User: What shape does this take?
Amino acid sequence: MNPLRLFCLLLLVALAGCDGRQDFLEYDNKEEVIGFRERKNERVLDELEKKKEELTRRLDEPGEEDRDKLEEDLTNTNRRLGSPEFFTYDATMEDLPEDLIWEEGLDQPELGSSRAKKGGTFNTYFSGLSFPPTIRPIGKSANNSFRSEHWDNIEMALVSLHPNTMETIPGLADRWAVGKDGRTVYFRINEKARWSDGNPVTVEDFFMTFHVCLSEYVNGPWYRQYYGTMFENITRYDDRHLSVRLANKKPKPEYYASLTPYSRVFYSEFGPDFEKRYNWRVRPTTGAYQILEENVVKGQSITLSRVKDWWARDQKYYRNRFNVDRIKYKVVRNLDKVFELFKKGEVDMFHLSSKRWYEDMEIPDVFDGYIEKKTFYNLYPRVPRGLYINHSRPFLGDVNVRIGLQHATNWQKVIDIDLRGDAGRLNIYNEGYGQFSNPEIVARVYSPEKAREAFGKAGFTKQDNDGVLQNDKGEKLSFSITYTKNPVADKRLQRLKEEALEAGLEYRLDGIDGTASYEKVMEKKHDLTFWGWGTQPPFPRYFEGIHSSNAYDPGTTTPRVQTNNISVYANPAADPLAEGIRFATTEKEIREMAWELEQILHDTAFWIPGYKNESYRLGHWRWMQWPDDFNVKMTREAQESYVYWIDVEEQEKTLRARSRGEAYPEVDEVYDQYQVK
Assistant: This one.
């Protein structure tokens, strides 16, 4: 073999098995970034000119229908042609409009408690009960259960929403202004804003956001879809001033225009091997916590460390939060084991299921006040938790089968028995968004008779000796439910399995490791999955989960992998509404389209809605302390607001008192200030 070819082959083999920085060839994307921006601008201009030509041609043809819509599109296209660049890098401060009305958002209530103490370690566990497949925030397998802990809840955007009032408050930007067009938002970056590696946050980092998110190097289409359709332009005026122009006018445009930066320095090696090169590369952060290389123990734990001299440590809304020095996430592969570690004090806090709340907390450490019990009523949009049906799998594309599944799945019994009546039935996909959630839809009730009627319409009319329905070909009505295996889910899904058999349906429980479950679902290899998506106020989102562009590879019947459309749902009637909500310009439009879309999802039996919780319950050791009102109302789980703190002195006192048998008063508190009554 040619020596050069042998060397290249050995090099490729070596690189294929490595993850670390030292295992990759040097790469600098500076020239590529410049070229990417130029090509993007040229492509946008070319597309707009072609669109104008096509619209003009159609309007010139007699008898053309929907002329009003075409004329509206032409007007918008001409507007875009007046300023077609996607990337504008040569503007100056003199180009900023002089009549901007700047806002600073400092009139909202403080967050957290002035009593909070800095220091200590919050000991917790990976909620997915497995070690994450990557710490990249984007690309293949990035949207795992750990992502919110190190990215969504940590990284700062230009602005954010106050979690009690939902008014805009500063983030990386210390002021902002909305232009007269209602779609261009101007931001000034706080002069103190720094990355954890010491580099200042500049406009260049927000340009890099678009470079990364629009790139073909990122596996999965969501980011290219979102950043390519929701935005029209980003402009640099100087290192601290930028503007972002939205493709459509929006309620709270500053919120929609608020970008999260990607460090230009860190992503200077972003290229074709991005997902492998950056899979375990620790990144700098603008937020309070960072991952250090020495704190990633593969297969065991990841620790987040508070950034030394964090730039926002004294800023309003942030100074009384993010109090602990470290947050340690450990791999514990089942919840029973987590609970045992919690009772030993090795895990500081544990969210409690109904069973554990009523049966497992009658213990001396609770009676003696070492462990405190809390109930908090939140107002966060409800998690769309239930069974997601993969419509691409055999028989599951038949709406009669799906309606039968809904009637055969007894969520109400799970609510009444396993959840002790402390939860309610979820009726729609996006519930808890106030006026935007359709209150008129009621989930189909458990009814073996109605289920068998629907299954019969799909051809499943014969019953075998095991009580499972079959069709004329002898094919059984049998589907697997993929989920992250743990005792709580095991019991609830076993109940669904037993109840389903009354309707002639066999559910096979496919409980596996959290990472394996996630990857199987992302590859669309499941029949059904027990799943719940994270939610984000103030407006419901549908596009990612139901639009057909995320269902199948273009022009094929091959399910599109690594998208959030885990139902592989493709419905021409739903697509325009999902798009319309995404591009809506008024709250009225969002409400009307969301209500109509929820009705379509109900009529087509898109999924099997499960249950919703209007509060959360937890136990925590008394050294983990909270503000007087406990938490902010817009939280899904207690810890994600970061208003808690670990009192190290109290921890020592508690452990000493416990060893001596000295008790504190028992604590079982309910915080219902946000309860809907």
User: Anything to note?
Assistant: The chain has four domains: 30-62+71-85, 93-301, 349-378+616-671, 385-612. The first strand starts at residue 87 and ends at 88.
